[in-house]
Amino acid sequence: MTSAALETIQIETGPNPTASVIWLHGLGASGDDFVPIVRELDLAGMQDIRFVFPHAPTMPVTINNGYVMRAWYDIIGADLSRREDEKGLRASQAMVEQLIAQEKARGIPAERIVLAGFSQGCAMTIQTGLRHPEKLAGLLCLSGYVPLHTTIAEERHASNQATPIFMAHGRGDQVIPIIRAEQSRDLLRSLGYEVEWHEYMMPHSVCQEEVDDISAWFRRVLG
User: Fold this and answer.
1) 165-170: strand order across its sheet
2) Helix axis angle, 120-129 to 86-105, nearest 10°
3) Which is nearest to 122 in space by CA: 56, 220, 209, 215?
4) Which of 5, 59, 9, 61 lies closest to 31, judged by CA?
5) Nearest to residue 8, comparing CAs of 25, 87, 104?
6) Which of 20, 132, 173, 184 is an active site residue?
7) Span 28-55, average pLDDT
8) Residues 179-191: what's their mean pLDDT?
9) What are the two backbone dihedrals, phi and then psi, of residue 200, each rounded to the nearest 5 degrees?
10) How many beta carbons lie within 10 A of that of residue 133, not counting itself?
11) Could you confirm whether 119 is annotated as catalytic?
12) Residue 98 pLDDT more than 70?
């Protein structure tokens, strides 16, 4: 991985965005993956929002026999809490920080920026958001978990202690079992974070009920 700026897809809901949502995709996907959700969200009557969908770098992924694909970090084995790719996680964290800086340079203050992510993108949202030195509008954490969980207490920044956190997971998720997400939720709550928890009858995916809940959450944190 390099520290070069990530390529992105950008969609604005109107001509004068006053908020940004940086949405990080999952392993093997791309920024295109969540572009359709902008049309599905109920954002009627809200101020204009810029959605930024970055493409993760390409890299060999160990658990997939070294196949090169888009990934925020390597997955070394099925046990996601062991032998984590700390170097990859921290390199991608720096890239996400660049995306936040770009939005700030375009006039969007940090407190109007939401970090969102699915699966690996969820892990990156938590990895970056809890360590970011300015308050963000919110963290939208879908079908993922807390990476490098033993470092959160020491490395977290007080600026985002009260930042709204939306966590959602499928009860039938066979990629990241819901117990892993529940452990992450409980860890965050034990550290004093207010986590809004949702679970749905779905696999490792997104469902309409979840989209409706995300719409309502966006209205609360960006309304």
Assistant:
1) 8-12, 49-54, 19-24, 113-118, 138-142, 165-170, 195-200
2) 70
3) 56
4) 9
5) 25
6) 173
7) 97
8) 98
9) -135, 155
10) 10
11) yes
12) yes
